[in-house]
Write a structure and sequence with these properties.
Number of helices: 19
Helix content: 40-55%
Order of helices and strands: EEHHHHHHHHHHHHHHHHHHH
Shape: globular
Strand order of the largest sheet: 1-2
Strand content: under 5%
Structural class: mainly alpha
C-alpha cells in the first residue's frame, strides 16, 4: 500500500494537510473499517486530528548537545528530572521530562525511568516492568530513536531529490515524535506511574574489600563442590568462570538463595574494578543476544541472565512473564557502560523468585486523581514549554537560535568606588534636609 503525503503543496507556495484516506467503496462496513486504517492508527500522519494546532511543537533542537531547548545544561535537567521522580513531585517530573523530550533526549528519559524502577520501585510495584514494556512495544516504531532525532517517522516519496518540499522546516517538524499524540501520552504515562509508585531504595548486601580474593572464592567454590580437586588451578586460570558457577549453583538451589546470588554479583563487580586498576580485564566470550549489538554482548551479565532463565523452568507462568519482561527492559538501549545502572533491574528479577504476586496486580496503585490530571494536561505541558521558549530573546519562533553572549560586569576601580560613595552620601543628606523644602524662598530684588 502506498501512503499519501500528509501535506499537499498549493499553488501560492503554501501547504495543506492531506487528511486520513477513506475507502472509495459504497459498502458502509468497509468505509467504517478503512476510515481508521491500520496504517494510520496512532501514526504521526494522524496528528492533525489528534493534537490541536495551538498545541503543536515547532521549535528546533538546541544548538549544542550539552544543552536543552531552554539553554539549560542537559546533565542538570536530567538530575532534576530524576530527583523530582524520587521525591514524588509529579508536576516537576513531567515538566522536566517534556523539556528533555523536546530537546531530543527521549532515550535518556526512558533510561532514567528504567533505572528508578530497578533501584527504588522494584518489588513495591511488581508488575510495573510489564506495564512499561507493553507501552514501549506499542509505540516502538514511532519512538524509533535514531541517533540524530528524538524519534523519526519517514515521509513517503522523500527520496525524490528533485522535490525540495520535504526540506522545509515546517514539514521536517512533523518528523519528530514531539507532535505524535500516542508518544506524548506514553512519556507522561510512564513518568506518572513511576513517580506515583511506592518507592524505597533497594537494600543490597555490603562487600568487604578484604574478601575480594582468590582464597575467599576458593572456600566458597569448595563448599558448593565446584571444580573438584582442581578448583584452585581453575581459579588461577579463570576466576570469572568459577564466580558464574557459584552464582548458578545458588540460583538452581532447591530454595533459591537470592541474597547470596546478589552478593556474588556485587563481589564480581568489586573484582572487576580491582583488575581494571591493574590494567587487566575479565575474559568473556561474545553471545548472540536478540536486540543487543554484538559488540555489547561480551559481558558476564548475560551469563547470569542465562542461569536465571534455567531457574524459570520451575516457576509458574505469571512469574516467568514478570522476569522475562524485566529482561526485555534490561536490553533497551543497553551498552556495557551502563551495566551498573541496569543491575538493579537484574536484582529485581532475582528477588521476584521469592515473591508470589500475580500479574493481574495493577501497575497503577494509588493517587488515581493525579494520574487523571497528568493525562488530561499532556498537550498543555508541551504548549507551556513553547510559550516559555517564545519569551526567550535568544530563540526565534521560526527555529533559528540566536545565542547572545552574556556581558560581564566591569570591575570597579578605586575612583569609581569613591564617586559612588560620594553620590550616596549626597543623596542621604538631601533626604535628611527634605523637610526644609516647605520654607518659602526669599525674593531677591537687586
Amino acid at each position: 500500500m502506498s501512503l499519501p503525503a500528509p501535506f499537499l503543496p498549493l499553488a501560492d507556495d503554501s501547504m495543506k494537510f492531506n487528511d486520513r484516506p477513506t475507502a472509495t467503496t459504497s459498502n458502509r462496513n468497509t468505509v467504517r473499517r478503512n476510515v481508521m486504517n491500520q496504517y494510520y492508527v496512532g501514526h504521526v500522519y494522524s496528528i492533525m486530528s489528534t493534537i490541536p494546532t495551538d498545541y503543536l511543537y515547532w521549535f528546533s533542537q538546541p544548538p549544542l548537545k550539552s544543552l536543552t531547548v531552554t539553554g539549560e545544561s542537559k546533565a542538570q535537567v536530567l538530575k532534576q528530572f530524576r530527583s523530582a521522580i524520587l521525591q514524588t513531585k509529579l508536576e516537576a517530573a513531567c515538566i522536566n521530562g517534556v523539556e528533555l523530550h523536546c530537546s531530543g533526549y527521549l532515550q535518556q528519559v526512558i533510561n532514567v525511568i528504567i533505572e528508578v524502577i530497578g533501584s527504588h520501585v522494584h518489588i513495591h510495584n511488581p508488575n510495573i516492568g510489564t506495564r512499561l514494556l507493553e507501552r514501549y512495544k506499542r509505540f516502538e516504531k514511532q519512538i524509533g530513536l535514531p541517533s540524530k532525532n528524538a524519534g523519526t517517522i519517514h515521509f513517503p516519496n522523500e527520496d525524490d531529490k528533485e522535490s525540495k518540499f520535504f526540506d522545509r522546516p515546517e514539514v521536517l517538524g512533523y518528523r519528530s515524535t514531539l507532535n505524535c499524540q500516542p508518544v506524548r501520552n506514553f512519556v507522561i504515562e510512564m513518568i506518572s506511574i513511576v513517580t506515583l509508585s511506592h518507592q524505597k531504595e533497594m537494600t543490597l548486601p555490603k562487600i568487604n574489600p578484604k574478601d575480594v580474593t582468590q582464597n575467599y572464592l576458593y572456600v566458597a567454590a569448595k563448599s558448593l563442590k565446584i571444580g573438584g580437586t582442581n578448583i584452585l588451578k581453575i581459579i588461577m586460570k579463570n576466576e570469572l568462570k568459577v564466580v558464574l558457577e557459584v552464582i548458578e549453583k545458588y540460583l538452581l538451589h532447591k530454595n533459591t538463595k537470592t541474597e547470596k546470588v546478589i552478593y556474588w554479583i556485587l563481589w564480581l563487580i568489586k573484582l572487576e574494578g580491582k583488575l581494571k586498576r591493574k590494567g587487566e580485564k575479565l575474559p568473556c566470550k561474545t553471545l548472540k543476544i536478540e536486540g543487543v549489538p554484538r559488540k555489547q554482548t561480551n559481558h558476564w551479565v548475560w551469563y547470569i541472565w542465562k542461569s536465571l532463565f534455567s531457574r524459570l523452568s520451575f516457576c509458574p507462568a505469571f512469574k516467568k512473564k514478570q522476569i522475562i519482561d524485566l529482561y526485555e527492559i534490561f536490553k533497551i538501549d543497553f551498552t556495557k557502560t551502563i551495566v551498573i545502572q541496569r543491575l538493579p533491574i537484574l536484582f529485581f528479577a532475582i528477588r521476584l523468585l521469592k515473591y508470589d504476586v500475580a500479574n493481574h496486580f495493577p501497575a497503577i496503585l494509588n493517587n488515581l486523581h493525579l494520574h487523571v490530571q497528568a493525562y488530561s494536561n499532556v498537550n498543555a505541558l508541551y504548549r507551556n514549554l513553547q510559550i516559555k521558549l517564545a519569551r526567550k530573546s535568544w530563540v526565534n519562533v521560526v527555529g533559528s537560535e540566536k545565542v547572545e553572549k552574556a556581558t560581564k560586569p566591569k570591575k570597579m576601580t578605586k575612583t569609581m568606588i569613591k564617586e559612588m560613595e560620594k553620590r550616596r552620601s549626597i543623596m542621604n543628606m538631601n533626604e535628611k534636609m527634605a523637610y526644609l523644602d516647605i520654607i518659602p524662598k526669599a525674593e531677591n530684588h537687586f
